[in-house]
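User: Could you check the structure of this?
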Amino acid sequence: MKARPAIVYSVLRLLAFLVPFGLMMLVPILREFYWLSAIFAALIGLSLSIIFLNKPLNEATAGLGAKQRAPRTSAGAADAASEDAVLDAAAPAASAAPAATAEAAAPAATAEAAGPAEAHSPSATESEADEQR
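Assistant: Sure, the predicted structure tokens are below.
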């Protein structure tokens, strides 16, 4: 398993601070002024990281940049895509349904406008009589 470059760089930076700080704590005079040891250790650690940790820093920032540029896919995006597909499939059926309803309503409207006498034409009653026989 390969360690993440950001973790490697962070551990190396901590070591660049802790090793000089530990060595300074061995000196009796610097043990009394621990805050001064911390400042010197921070300066030494910063200098060491600038000089020697350039490659791990570049690897860590490249990995973070690649992760930032990567396209994000989430469950929400997949769910939205499936909902769009369902709506797109339902759109032609929904637009065809009002047209069919309008066509079915048109003959009924003309029959009502014609009046009850024309609605029951003789040909309709003759076909009903034929069916009864």
